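Table S4 entry, Na+/H+ antiporter.
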Amino acid sequence: MAETLLRVVLLLAVVGVVSGFARRFGLIRPVVLVIVGIGLSFLPFFPEYALDPDLILQVVLPLLVYIAAVGLSVPGLRSNIRPVMLLAVGHVLFIAALVGFALHAVVPDIPLAAAFALGAIVAPPDAVAASSIAKRIGLPRRTVTILEGEALINDATALVTLRVVAAAATGAAVTWQAVGREAAIAAIGGVAIGAVVALIGAFLHKKTDDKLLDNTISLLLPFAAFVPAEYVHASGVAAVVTCGLYIGHRKPLLMSAGSRLQMDSVFRVVNFLLEGAVFLLVGLQIRSAATNIGLDLGTVVAATVVVVLAVIIGRFVWVYPAAYLPRLSRKLREREGPRPPGQVAVVAWAGPRGVVSLGAVLSLSIDFPYRGLLVWITFVVIIVTLVGQGLTLPIVARWLNVHRDDPQADILSEANVRQQAYRAAVRRLDELIEDSEVAGYVVDRLRTLAENRANQAWERLGDPNRETPSEALRRLRLEMLRAERQVLIEARDEGRLEDELLRRIQGELDLEEILLVKTARDEATL
């Protein structure tokens, strides 16, 4: 027990140190974690970590997928549903077939169904890695939405495909009717169960204002959707995605401000630890994966190179026709707008594999045909696509002149909406004070507060190097908060203020500071 605890603490400590290093130097965290994991795997004194596929697929995956789904824009997904589905379904099936035939051509003895199983395993780009890389390098919002939407939905396609071909590879009779029935049950059943759980979750969120209870519900919902869906052989991932999209879209109406702030913080911590641990473990597994292949070196190298090339080149082969052939329709071109070649190229190059591929290949039974080879190739595909493409994607994006959306346009849009919200707030204030005896200074303060908030966005339209009034206010107010906090601590230490009162006042100051800092960070990303 003590040894297991020590291993977990060591793993999380490495995740924390490496993540801090990556953030300090502006590096892509998943890429750095994988590289460090590979290096640690060859150190004789560093402990070996055995991965449980059930832990990956039934605990880690639902949580990571749910967190990603809650943060995805439903209107953005809806407006890009055609490219997302072409990638999430069509691309996965295409890569599964391409990899299967390519591997079978190099290793003729491997059953075709087993080769297709590897194709299904390495076909889906990872939601967490895709989101981390896309947002870190500042891609256009539409491109980020397409990559995140694809990575969320393709997990269900890949796992259902794997379930069918793995059954065929182990000797079960599989017909086209059975495949169609399996796919229909997985998709429709998963969405239906996810929708039911989402409605129940929304009802529970709306009925409570307790922040701790709200966060408990949030952490349980992905499992409440995943477990029953898997029990009836539907897609647990589809259920989690459906539930997460609904709750995330309705969150402003379902939860109090305090609950939303706390949930965001909890999700960031969970995502930070789980994501970091998984990518570090991918690197740590590479040495053990290389020792259980059971084939000659030449065959292994040839099979690995062919599969890696099929995954990378096959994405280009699919993405370009899928992006431009449907646009031969004039109505489609008018509805979707322009499709810049640079953004299409970035989508084709951005295909990092991760959690799903890792858990899927480890879930193969010990007696699965050529299991050692499939595990090795999967780890290499994850590392090459995550490290190789992750490190080069910023270069490709800059070379193709693909960058984030115009920040001035975002600021202008925000300013207009804030102005409308300000007018609505003032009208409501006038209605409330019409027949009441509210002190004049209170009304003036409320009007000033609303007006200042409305003016914040307009201020950012000026010289970007000049400190705006709102920025000066935040800077000065933060210094004032530090001074207030110091006096409170001194009063507590001298016995003039009870510790319980200090914590309550400290909570108020902390909440104000969080709001000030968060606003500054949000503005910095525009």
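The chain has a mean pLDDT of 83.
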